[in-house]
Every structure is written in C-alpha cells, then in structure tokens.
Amino acid sequence: MEARPPATVDANFISPPTHSDKRSRACIGCKLVKTFDQFIEDGCENCQHLALKDDRERVSECTTTSYSGVVSLLSDENASWVGKWLHLGKYACGCYALQLQGSLITPVDKPVGRT
Amino acid sequence: MTRVAHGAFTKNTAKAIRLADERAEDGEDDSDSGDDDGRETDERRDEPEGDDGEDDAADNDDGEDGEDDGSEDEDEDLENELEELRGNGGDEIVGERKARAKRNRYVDDVADEDDDDEDDGGAKKKKKKRGVRGFIDDEAEADDSEEDEEDEGEEDEQLDDEEREALRRDMDTRMHARMENQGAFERMDNEEEIERMIKERYAQQRYADAGRGQIDDSVDQQALHPTVRDPKLWMVTVKLGKERETTVCLMQKMINLAKQGKPPMQIFSAVCQDHLKGYIYVEAHREDHVRKALQGLRHVYHSKPIRLVPIKEMVDSISVVQKEVAVVKVDSWVRMRTGVYKGDLAQVIDVNYADNQCTVKLVPRIDYQHLADKEAGVKGKPKSQVRPPARPFSESEAKRFNLPLEKGRLDRAFHDVVDILCGTTKIKDGYHLKTCSLATVKLSETPTLDELQRFAVGEDVDTEGGAANGALAALSKAVGARKTDLKFMTGDQVLIVEGDLRNLEGVVERVDPDGRVVVMPSHKELNELLTFKPEQLRKHFKTGSTVRVLHGKHEGVVGMVVKVDRDVAHIFSTVSNEEFQVFMHDLADSEEATQRIDTIGEFALHDLAMLDGNEVGCIVRVEKDVAFVMTNAGTSDRPEIKPVKLHDLKKKLFSRNISAQDAHMDTIDQGSMVRIIDGKYKDATGTVEHIYKGTLWIRARHVQEHGGIVCIRSRNCVAHGGNKGSQIGGGVAAQMMSASGLPPKSPAHALLASSFTSGLRGDLMAQGNQAPRAMPMRAFAGGRGRGRDPLIGQTKKIRSGVYKGYVGRIIDVTDSTVRMELQAQARTITVNREHLDVPQVAASRDSFLSRPPPSGFDAPWARTPAHYPQTPARAGGMTPMHGAMTPAREAAWNPQQTPAHMPSEWQPTSTAGTGWGSATGYTPGGFGDSAALAGPTPGAGYGVTPGADYTGATPGGYGITPGGYDAPRVEDPVPVPAAPVAAWPEDYMGRFIPGVVVRLSSGAQGYVTSVGPGGSTFQVKIGTVRVRDGVEVLETVPKTAQEETVTEDELEIVKPENKSRVIVVTAAEGANRGETGRLISIDGVDGVLRLDSSSDVVILDMACLARRWHE
Predict the structure, then answer these.
(1) Which of A22, A67, A77, A100 should be substituted to probe chain B, the one whose Cβ sees the most B Cβ atoms within 10 Å?
(2) Which of B35, B131, B549, B695 sits CB 3.0–4.6 Å from B632 for a disulfide?
(3) CATH homologous superfamily, domain B227-317
(4) Domain B599-719: which topology?
(5) Residue B275: its chain A contacts at CB < 8 A?
C-alpha cells in the first residue's frame, strides 16, 4: 500500500500557494487557496466551470484575498474529519481557506458537461 | 451517531441487495465479482461504523491514511463500478431495479438518467429521493451529484412548460452522450483503460461539484460532528506568525513525499486559524503520526508538547466566528487610514471587491508647490513636513504653479469625465478622486454636520448661501442612510415626511416595540392616533424651542432653535453663546431647559482648576468628557484654550482669599468689578471670577467668546471704584498700605493707622510685655473689613510646644492661636501664636504689618533681617514712621506725609537736618539697641538702624537722607549683597528708577543714578558696552564716568539677562517696585527671581523687571 506510483498521487494534489499571505487568493467557489499567478496558470482545479485559467479578469472576479484561516487538506475524500466538517471532502487535496468573504459576482455558468 | 450508524448499515445492506439483484436480474455470471462482493459485505459489517467514510464509491482514494482496508475498499469499489458499467452497457435496465435505485446510492448516474428519461416527473421523484438520502449518508452526494447539479434549479419550484422542454432537451443530449460512451466502452478491451476512464470521470464529477451550494447543510452538519472514530486534532506550537506558512509547508511536504514515492504522512489535514497565534492544528489518529509529519519543519517548536484537542472542542477549534463585517459600499462614508489624508472623511464612489480596491472622493490636500517641484524635475527636495490643508482643488492655483491639467478626460473606471492633474491626480468637481486599497479605508460612523460641511466645501465653492443650504440638504440626504436607527421618544415633535399625510405635524405618543411610532397629529380635525414607520417621520423643532443635542461635536449642549433649514437646525447655545448647526435628528426636546452638561467630575463650568505643571485655567466649556480650559498661559488677546480630560484636572482652586493688584496697585478680589485697560477688550468691564498669581479670569459682559470669560493679567485692569489717590485723611499709614498693596478700604483705616502706631509704640515701651501685643493685631485685623490675615498662607515653623519643630502652612488665624497644616503630617493643628517661629515668610508684602510684634522687638529683625521691610520704598517709609512714633515727632509728622515718599518735600525740611538716616536721635532706647544687632547684617539695616551704621553701608540707598542722597556711590567700600537702591521721587511712577540699566537714544548704555522730581530728568551714568551673544551689554561703568542728564523719552529699559541682577520697576504681585533680586531663569514672558530682601523666589512678568547696576 505504501508504495504507490507517484504519478497517481501527484495528480490529486493541488500545489499549495507558492507565496503565503499577501499574494494568495481563495477561490470563491471552493475556497482553494493559491496565488494569483497559480490561478492564472492552472485555473482552479476544483472549479473548472469557473474557467479561471488564463483569464485574469475571471481570476480577480472569482477569487478573493479576504479569507481567513488555511486548511491543508492532506488526505483525500472523507478520511479527514476536518475535510468532512468543512465540506471539502469532494475536493482535491490542497490548501483551502477556512472562511472567505465575497460571492461570485456574475452568475456562474453551469458546468459544460463532460469533456 | 445513530443516524450515521444507520446510514452505514443502510448503505451496506443496500449494496449487498443491489449486488444480489444484479446477479440475479442481469443473469450474468461473474464469479469473481460475486466472490468479492460477498467478502466485502461481510467485511463491511465487521467494520467500525465510523470508518465508513473511507470507502467511497468514487475513486482516487490514494490511501494516505495508510490503512489497508481503505485501499482494499477502493479496489472493490472500482470493480463494482466496472461491473455496473458493463451491465449497463450491455442491457436495458429493468424497471424494478430502477425503482430501487432511487433509494440506492450506489446506482450510477447512467442508471439515473434512465429514470429521468422516462417522464417529466423525474425531477420530482428525485426530490423525494433526496429527502430520504439526506438521512443516509452524505457520501451519496458524491455519487449522484452530477445530476443533482443539473436539476438543482428545478428542484424547488414547479416546472413550467418551458423548463420541461429544456429538461427534455437536456435529457436528449445526455442520452446521446451515453450512447457515445457506450460505444467507447465497447471499444475498450482493456480493463486498465476502463479503470482510467472511470477515475477520470469521477474526478471530473467531483470538480464539477465545486460551487454547488450545500443544500442539506443543516442536516448534514449535525451528522458530521466528530466521533471517537474520527482522527483527532492535535495542537502544535509553531513560531509566531508562521502558522500559515507551516500549514502550507505540510501540504508541500505531502506533495514532495508523493513525488519521491515515499510513504505519505499519516496526517489528514493541518489547520491554521488567523486569530490563533502560535498554534496550528494537525489532524491525525496518533500523536506520533503528528510528530513524524512535522519532522524537518522549520517553524515548529518540536520540543513543545503536542496537545490533544478534546473531542467536544474540535468543532470550535476549526470554526471561524463569522463576524458581521460592515462592508464598504458605494456612498458609504469612510476615513482614510494612511497617507496625507489620514483621518480625513471620504465618500466611496466605487468599489472593486475583487481587487480589494475602492475609489473615494476627498477634499484635496494638494501640495501645489511640491507638485510643481516634481514637474520641474527638482530632485532631492523633500516634501513639506506640513500637511497641506484640505481645500477644494483650485484651478487658478494649479495654473499659478504651471501644473499641467488635463481637462475633461473620460475616465473609464468611473464612466465620468474627470480632470487630471499632473497626469496622476484625478480631480472632479474640486474633489480628489483617489483609488486606494480597501485596507486603507475604514468605515466611519455617520459624520457630524460640520464635518460634512467641510466636506461639502468642494461643492459650495462658488455658491451663495441658499445653494449652500441646498448642499447641506443633499448631505443630510446622504447621511439619511442611518434613518433606521432613528430614535423617537415620547413627546418628540415630529413631521411626517412620507405618504399622504406629508407635512402633517404631530407629537409622538409612544413607540411600539416593533419600532413603529404612534403619533398624535397636531391638527384640530384629526383626533386619532396614527402609526408610522420611523422613516416616515422626522423630528421637527420649531424656532424658539429649547433643545438638547444628542450626537456629534456639540453633544449635550442645550440651546434654542433659531432657524430651521429643512433637516438642519440652527441652534444658539445658551452656554457658549455660539450658534451652530445640527441635524434635526440629533436633537431632542429639552424640558429641563436649564439643565445642561456643565460639570465634569467635581469641576463645574467656570471653575478654576489646576492642570499639569504650573498651569491653571478656568473651565469655559464642558463637553461630554472633556473640559475646555482657558489657561493662565494665554492673554486676553490670545487666549489659550486647552481641551482637557477629567483626569488632567488636578484640583480645584478657590480664589476667595486671593487678591491681586490692578494697574494702580489697588487690590482686586474675587467678585470685584474691573475695567480692562489694555488689549482688544479695552474698556470692557466684568466681574472677577478667579485670581491666580496675578492672572485674572473675568466674566466680562458684552464679550461673546468663551462664554464671556477673559483671561488677563491683573495689571491690565483697573478695579472699579479704585482707590487711586484716595488718601483718606492724608494718613501716612493709609498711604503706606496702599503702596504695599493693601488699599485702605474705609476711613477706619486712618483710625486704624493711629491705633496701630500707638499699639506699636506701646509695644516698644512695654519691651517684652506680651499683653498689649495682641492689640495692634486685633485692631489691624478688625480694621481690614475684608481680605484676610496676611499670615494666612505663610509657612512657619513651630518653635515650642508639643509641635516643636514642625513646619506648616497657616490657614487660619485668631488673636492668640493659628491653625496650620503641617507639612510632615496630613493634619491641621491649632497652636498658640507664641509657639511659632518665622523661618521664612513667603514674599508677602503684608509681612511688615501682619507680623506679630515679637517680644524682643529688635531681635527678630536682627535674626531674620529680611522680614522687615523688604523694599526700599517701604523701608524708607518705615523709618520716618517709627520716627513718627516718638511722641516728639508726632506733630511734625502728620502734615508731612511719608517723608520717604516725598524726598523733594522732605529735603527742605529743617528737621531733617542731618537726614533721616542719622536721625537716631529720635529713636528711643529700643532702637538704639537694635543698632548693634543690625550691624552684622547691613542689608537688613533699613531704616531702623542708626544712621551711622546705615549710611556707611549704603549711602546711596537712602535717598531721603539729604547727605546720603548725593553721596557718590562709588565710594562705597562695603560690598552690599542686598542693598536697596536709591530712592526716587514719590511722584515718579515710571520705570526708570535708580539702579536701572538703560539704553540711551544715542545707543550708549548706563544706569540711572537719580531721578528728578516727578521724573522730569534722569541722571544716567554712562558705561562701556560690549557685545555678548549679539547683544550689547553694559559691561563696566568707570567710577569717574560722566553722568548725563536726560529725559524719559531718551531712555529705554535694557531687558535683563538670565542670572543677572534685576530690579523690579513695576510693582507686581510678589514684589514691590524697587525691590532687587537676581534672575534665576526666564520662562517666556515670566522671569523667576530670587528677592534679595527675603530670599524668596517669585515669578514676575519680564516687563516688570530691568537689569540693575550696582557696584
């Protein structure tokens, strides 16, 4: 069990913010915390429907700097009680905000369906 | 807990059933899967209830938990899924199974889609299903969330035809997609590929969940409370400020471990709370898991214990208290936190939450000069330290500084036209539009009216009064946002401002608990109570009504409404005599018109209070928690008003027993009427409220400012009905008293004077007999009418008795006893007069008259020579007086007044003969004795010492002595530490008395040696001048120097330097004219000097002092 193919594991982690505090933002959709640049580069892994990737405007619209607390969700799914309690169980492992202010300003389009 | 258990059970059972069904119905014989399922079912039942979270149907469980069963589950789940897919791909699903599937969370979405296909009521059915599911397990959401998401919108409302149509279309596309998928599955021969696809699909699905609201939150959250099976929370001490970093590091570490293929950490999560400094929470089953995970982390204090968070506190520790944060919105009033505008009021005109920025409107503080310098490229010039004042932008000024101003540019952000100054500063309507971070502004409570007025100057810049009021009204509208917290009270007069009854007036009858206001209309035909919402009403005060201000700068002030401008009332305060404007809603009816805030602690309006240091002030205005004090540091023209808090008011002072001298050296007491003779209030009259060290606080009529209180030096006033020139009966005693600051108050003084002298005489004759001693005192005290015994306030030492050795301040005096406050002990005692010693007498001009004649008449003088007449003037006066006491002189004395004061008259007097100084012949035996004693202390010699001694010591000191008067001072061989200066003519009131260093109009410096009668001429001995510190200073006066005779116009007083010898040229409280001393320090306009006569330190106005020359 211990030795897993790294590739599999890797795919399920969202890189934590490379900078702490000031430049980091939280996705309003899923509370994922990353830096602005990371959001631009990868979008929000949880909220594909927000289509944040490569869209500065979307990123500044759909993420916020006014969040508080950070949870590093290290175990997938519901093994973590914290993840369960915060309803993060459905998201990938990564850093999340405990709480954030703000709401998605423009109504978010429904998911486009499967790709 | 039970619910969870039930959920687990249901789930497992359902799974078992489903698997059984599948096998039966599909008729497919998959032995492998069958075995697996069977095993799984068994195993599941054995599993602890709490662990069901780990076996999720979805994939991607990487097993970070490291528990074997978890990974096994995953494999099993995967196989189940594959099996199902295969089943679906091959066959049509039987209706029976579908029905069950509604309750079954392990049904895959394709199956559900079939459901939906069947009829339009699919959504409704699902709704029902959701209700049940909510009680089963939240994991189910992961399974069928996709369809939920799509149906979410429809869930809570009736479907109309349009929506149905849309749904149908949606279903069609799904159907189509499924067909495609099926095709794909068919093409897949490889199980791994299928596995990958499933993973992909579920991953996708999970992400797609993002942004979905948690519909069943309330129910779910209950079920989510931690159980003993859940991992525990551990509290880890980390470096302060590195909480977030550590948390993020743990995440990164996990990734790094995974990349390196190393076993993952056995922790489930790490949490940092912004408000919890120095700690993070780590979720793990065991403490050593935590320790292991934290290994190698920089900011963790590994040596500190890791604490377990009790299960009950787990929820609290990761919950964030949702603060009701007031949000900065467009139009809200904010204050700037930083920069040149710090503290300024601003109005938000645009907010961009995403960028955390807002644009505010400010009254500009533009440093035109600085901008111009910048434009000109001047480098290194620092910005002015002074904050530029807030003024509306002035185009002309910008032009004057040649600043580039781009006008009328359309700004995209504001969708408005703005002017741009110097390419950066956006100006609109005279305001500065500034875009700044939300963090640099803070919400302001409703600004006060005057602040709004200041803010509105930008708009009013070129409008007249009417328009300005319009702007105010607009402002009041802008402020109206807080109408909701308007408070109406029973009895308030209101005006209805909304609805059909607009402009109807009424009186508030009561306020209902729900906030509605019941109003009795003031209309003769309306007799019914009407109910209004608070926002429909406005307080309404008629002109002339007395109101109290409830909020703002003028809070607590009671005044009268003098004018009403829509929402703004003009109030005239009865306390401060000021008019100001307040919003109507900040007012309340003041029934107790007289009651107002005029006390602060024990201090009341117009009290005199001691502040820090040497400052004393009169409270001229009291506000909620601050008193405005007019201090003694100011003058009548420039009053210094200080706002002070209660704790800065040290103690209350009373002026009852304190007096001061006016310009004519008449006494001013509390309550005296005085006329101001100088400054901008010249000729104003008022009542003395307080006196402190020569400073008066006068309540002047016709003075508007500060409630009519004026702070002024006593010498700038004249007491009404002053005693100038009132030499009743020509009594020399009266004259003397007047000179020494004790104005004769009544003709009784003449009598008193004689009784006094006779008393003294009796004393002299009695020589130690105590009996008559009290007599002059009594006579004196009785004769004074008002005022106080001059002993009071003095500090004395007790010479004998129980309290021998104690020093205390005399607070009350009777004929035989005094009451004193001891310095060493906090108590007041009564002692006999004769127990008192006189170690030092405060520089009191009264000392001569007040002093209880000691038993040995001369002895005290000799011992404490300074106590006897301290000023030459008095000294001069004394001698003849004592002389006059001798019966032989009496007749000649009376008509002559005080010879000392009138040397000109005196000189021709034949009786003077050898001069007063040598007039020992008149002195009775007692005086003769004193001569010997006075010898060793020449400074104290004064008039009482026999002329022989005296003249030798200070020949020039006795102007009255014709012989001594002209005697050249230079011949004086004996150093005189405190020699009195030469006297001057009695009728000379000016400042150029002998000894004063003067500057002649020619520029030369010298000192006055004598004064002609009435100050007509002055003899000035010219010395040499040296420049010291840029100032010409008289350095030497040669003995043989010439004397010049000049007039007053040619003379100018030389301001004394620090530490120099000075002479008092204008009588002031604490020292008489002609007294000498040494300047200890100069404190602004005040000089601190030590008097030669008494060694007392007094503070005098520098204008009273002149440099003194002595050889």
Answers:
(1) A77
(2) B695
(3) NusG, N-terminal domain (3.30.70.940)
(4) SH3 type barrels. (2.30.30)
(5) 68
Average pLDDT in the B948-964 region?
39
Residue B201 reports pLDDT greater than 50: yes
Buried b (16+ CB within 10 A) or exposed e, B1001-1038: eeebbbbbbbbbeebeebbbbbbebeeeeeeeebeebe
Give me the interface pTM, i.e. the ipTM: 0.84
Q: Which of A9, A44, A74 sits opposite B265 (nearest CB)?
A: A74
Pick the closest to residue B595 from B622, B619, B613 (CA basis).
B622
Question: Does the distance separating the beta carbons of B244 and A46 come in below 8 Å?
Answer: no
How far does A40 lie from chain B, in Å, by closest CA?
A: 15
Cβ neighbours of B209 in A, within 8 Å:
46, 90-91
**Minimal CA separation from B265 to chain A, in Å:** 8
pLDDT tens sequence across B706-720: 778 888 888 888 887
- Of B1107, B1094, B740, the C-alpha closest to B939 is B1094
Q: CA of A41, closest CA in chain B: separation in Å?
A: 17
Closest CB to A74: pick one of B224, B270, B322: B270
Domains and CATH numbers, chain A: 24-100 (3.30.40.210)
- Two domains, one topology: B227-317 and B794-832: no
CA distance B239 to B247: 12
Domain B996-1107, CATH among 3.40.630.40, 2.30.30.30, 3.40.50.1820, 2.40.37.10:
2.30.30.30
Q: Does B68 touch chain A (CB under 8 A)?
A: yes
For chain B, which residues make up each domain, given as ranges?
227-317, 328-378+387-457, 599-719, 794-832, 996-1107
B203 neighbourhood in chain A, CB within 8 Å:
12, 92
Nearest-CA residue of chain A relative to B279?
A: A69
Q: Which chain B residues contact residue A70 at CB under 8 A? A: 244, 247-248, 271-272
Query: Angle at CA B163, nearest 5°, toward B160 and B165?
Result: 110
Q: How far apart are CA A65 and CA A86, in angstroms?
A: 19
pLDDT at B354: 66
Token code pair at residue B453: 């007025």
pLDDT at B384: 66
Q: How far apart are CA B403 and CA B370, in angstroms?
A: 11
